[in-house]
Amino acid sequence: MQDFIKIHEDDNVAVALRPIEKGETLTVAGQEVVTLEEIPQGHKFALKPIQAGEDVIKYGFRIGHAKEAIGKGQWVHVHNVKTALGDLLSYTYEPVPSRLKETEHVYFEGFRRKDGRTGVRNELWIIPTVGCVNSIAKALEKEAQSLVTGTIDAVAAFTHPYGCSQMGEDQENTRRILADMIHHPNAGGVLVLGLGCENSNIPVLMDYIGEYDKERVRFLQCQDVEDEHEEAMRLLRELAAYAGSFHREKCDASELIVGMKCGGSDGLSGITANPVVGAFSDILCSKGGTTILTEVPEMFGAETLLMNRCENEELFDKTVNLINDFKNYFTRHDQTIYENPSPGNKKGGISTLEDKSLGCTQKSGSSPVKGVLAYTEPVKMKGLNLLSAPGNDLVASTALAMSGAQIVLFTTGRGTPFASPVPTVKISSNTKLASHKANWIDFNAGRMVEDATKEDLAEALFQYVLDVASGRLVKAEEAGFHDWAIFKQGVTL
């Protein structure tokens, strides 16, 4: 295992890949560095003296300013580094040519729906229109487990507290998310469970749902029937009969849409897990598939790397708006734009938002940006897309699924058990986490600093994703987890 890594030749810090004791002599890029204090794994140490106010460089880019003079070999972290970011910025389009080349076709076994879309699961979903019927939905989920037979993979109720007492765009978001969920191809059958008096009731939702397969989607308004549980179970049995008629068939990998998200990051996330996912993204895009990158606040400080990979100036302008709209969202609520990273991030070695963002955006690989999506907007363009959503793990992962992702890749250095509406692959940045939380972690990218290359791990991850798309369960699915969260932005009445 390597002891440390200097990521870019211009960096004035290196990252410890193991805990380094005070007084150790390390040879970094031909020069000796004696550590002046203990350096935890994933944390940075100075390769040369850094004066107060001078840039701290990692990934070849500034990750902040030194708060005070930092000596060669000294620990570099939140106590002596601060963000260098400002508020709204002006940007210039400086396009970077794409080197992505088409590669050979590969296949997975998926479920082809009547609308032409492809799912990687064949589940029955119970979707409440309003939080008032959540308990009914959960009771139905429990009783309907007997319907998980044949090609039906699971029954899941997706409860939430919204659908009423909302206003304006907040209410619109809920309605659009519910419609996106109803249309998602991972569901072979959907029961939409309403109350009857809520703002986002079933008649109102019909305008958002549009055309749908009447055999695949059924509706029940609980106030309209004497025994809602009995009637719902009757509808679920009909839906199960329909969903059970679907079987896996050979599908081209170009039909895959994979979301990319990170959470509970550490100092190795931008060195191992995120670059491996970025290389995966390039592989899938080279085969005509689609990836979606989100968590806009964790692009701040690295946004120009994405802007300059936009395929045209229209997409560049959309990306500028994507960034600035989120900054305005913070200031509208009187919040600091750069109040990030989290306590867990800092404990893992991430010092500033620039540090976090430059690591986060590694998940985008090197593919050109083909699309920029608003929250709840379905993906339309194959290739790499950017999606407007916050950094919150569950909200962002749900947003990825609602824009069309059949699978989400979630990198982490700290670990988390959560699921999303679709198979959520947990990818660890370090081997210690993969071993310690083997019941959470599906893929260990920490091997990149031990015995494997980024390219080999990306190929292995790609094959793993094909297996998941063909029916292999991820750890959260084995535990029976199905989670989701709607982005709450506005007033509650």
Structure, described:
The structure is a single chain. The mean pLDDT is 95. The termini are far apart. The longest helix has 20 residues, at 313-332. Helix content is 28%, strand content 20%. The chain has helices spanning 134-143, 168-183, 202-209, 228-243, 273-286, 303-307, 313-332, 343-348, 353-360, 393-402, 431-436, 454-469, 475-478, and strands at residues 4-5, 13-16, 25-28, 31-34, 44-46, 55-58, 61-66, 75-76, 81-82, 107-112, 118-119, 123-128, 155-157, 187-194, 217-221, 249-252, 257-262, 290-293, 369-373, 383-387, 407-412, 424-428, 443-444. With 493 residues, it is of the alpha/beta class. It contains 13 helices and 23 strands. β6 and β7 form a beta hairpin. It is globular. The strands form six sheets. It has a seven-stranded parallel β-sheet, sandwiched between helices.
